[in-house]
Amino acid sequence: MTAVLEAHGFGKRYRRRNWALRGVDLTVPEGSITALVGPNGSGKSTLIRAWIGFERPTEGRLSTGGVDPGKDRDAAVAKVGYVPQSPSLYGNLTIAEHITLATTLRDGFDAALAAQYIARLSIPLTAVAAELSGGEQAQVGLALALGTRARILLLDEPLASLDPLARREFLHVLVEAVRSEGHTALLSSHVITDIEQACDRLIVLGKGHTLLDLSISEALAHHRVVEGPPSFVPADALVGSFPSAGGDSLNLIRVPAIQPLTADAPPVGRSATLEEVVIGHMAAGRLRRAAVPVEAAA
Length: 298
Ligand SMILES: Nc1ncnc2c1ncn2[C@@H]1O[C@H](COP(=O)(O)OP(=O)(O)OP(=O)(O)O)[C@@H](O)[C@H]1O
Ligand SMILES: [Mg+2]
Fold this sequence. Notes:
Helices cover 32% and strands 27% of the residues. The protein is an alpha/beta fold and 298 residues long. Helix 4 packs antiparallel against helix 5 and helix 5 runs parallel beside helix 6. The chain is globular. The termini are far apart. The chain binds adenosine-5'-triphosphate (ATP) and magnesium ion. Magnesium ion binds next to helix 1.
């Protein structure tokens, strides 16, 4: 496995406040589509921005396509197609002008490819960015990121403002681009049901740490859900407890991937959905006492 994005003991502390992230060790394999999930403030944007060199690590080391973004930001930026969490278009420029601008700012920018993606969105090149809806702007952002032909795509909550059909179309374009061009994509999202179809890996951040880092098939194979109070399950198997949408108490448990299928030992509980795996680990992260030292603001 070739790692395209790496974090080794990565920590980020803003000014002299609490650590946003600490002790993060991650590798994102080439050709994968990785979902980066975690509650608000768990450090998703911080990590993405640090991989492009927009945030400097307070400690530890990152690698972006073999480049240390803390040392050579320009080289890291050149390797990445990035869609930031907040809209990044210039309100008074048309889409065609954005493409021209990208061509002048970015070596190797493929204007024809970007225009092709825009055409698929049925957005006219003459449209002014400020007149597009939030979802349309997000889709233009992806088209421009794909136009860079960068091998690494870092997309910070690209689905947040899209309607369900647009989400599907966005993910379809992304998956197609990754598969046909051999890209690697990492996208942060809160919408787990969508990413389940498109992503093959899952990273969950919480409380300043990595709570989970594995393939989606491993995530599903290694967890099950047991209904009832937490005391119903062995403490060493329990990951976290959380309510169902209807208010019942659910427990996410860790299980061996291959369970004995005998009449004496039927599998415990039922299969977990990916959303339940993520919520169970988030619930566990919320309970876990912050292992990160909290320092007084300067
Ligand atoms: N520029 C900054 N200055 C100070 N603190 C910051 C800055 N950017 C982020 N933080 C803090 O770092 C932590 C992680 O923030 P970050 O934006 O990375 O979270 P996130 O997981 O992307 O959240 P969201 O889901 O809301 O987008 C938060 O506690 C936030 O307040
Ligand atoms: Mg964010």
